[in-house]
């Protein structure tokens, strides 16, 4: 197997990589996308897309592929908590923030990746599944070496897009290190048979020593997530881990005590991971190479903006590559400046969210009770939630001030 020289090599066929490959190929560039999986499978990745992220799919021209991959509109968000009766839980209409877009989408990650990749192929991109041992050499004429079952291959390009996710496989090779921190751990499982759960209502809440999430994907299927404290990462390991995971949803704060969720049937693997926040120590690019998506830095997964951020990255980088002949590092400076500002706000919002929802014990319960009261009395205290809906650049500045955090939490972040 050999490849002629191409304009762009995209490393990673996830959401950011496949969307980039499709967009660039649609604009007439020659594209090679390398994906390490031989076929897309359920790896328990992010599967919730904010309305501002949906707008990015439209700008990239991949929104129809998302629909084909199983995107399902969520219209209402209910915030359950042990401090209130289930009947009094706060409900939010999520279709009103960007009416021209609608509510957020929930979907099987691997299904959307497959659909977007198929679109990229139709647009003319070359796609290699099962690519391994990928080696990137940056420079004026970057090159990529990789292996498949047929042997070792090498291709030269004008630009390499690193979209390999949290593994940062490309970033490490071009000398981009990252600083990381972990606030809590998470676990995720796909279930089916959740027929009694409203198909357009997502759930989030905290009770005892877990924060729980339910994201319907239609037809009785849903992705379940639990977040819990560091030091407790072994709780969902072992032979009966799935049963213990589901039984954790038997909560007083959920309608019917959570029986509907707890009795659902597993439809995929249970995966446990640390919720890693990563910040690059250098600019996420080199001559001939630019990083996008999780590879360029992440915020806490509890905020739910990872996919939207990845698609914003993809769209902005694609606009540089399709907008002119200047592909130098300087051409990406506006993108990097926007990303820095975006991530600064997302990091700040995530710190508020984790303090409210993913800390446990009597002090944390009192903090949530006080915050809920403030939010009920004054809508301005709900401003952090706008990050999930309209994008960080559209959230009022006061939501990122220490004064706001101190009023809401009675402490700084």
TrEMBL record:
Positions in coiled-coil regions: none
Source taxon at top rank: Bacteria
Gene Ontology molecular functions: FAD binding; oxidoreductase activity
SUPFAM superfamilies on file: FAD/NAD(P)-binding domain (SSF51905)
Claim: S-adenosyl-L-methionine is one of the keywords in the record: no
Keywords from the named record: NAD, Oxidoreductase
Keyword Cell division set for record: no
Pfam families, alphabetized: FAD_binding_3 (PF01494)
Protein name: Uncharacterized protein
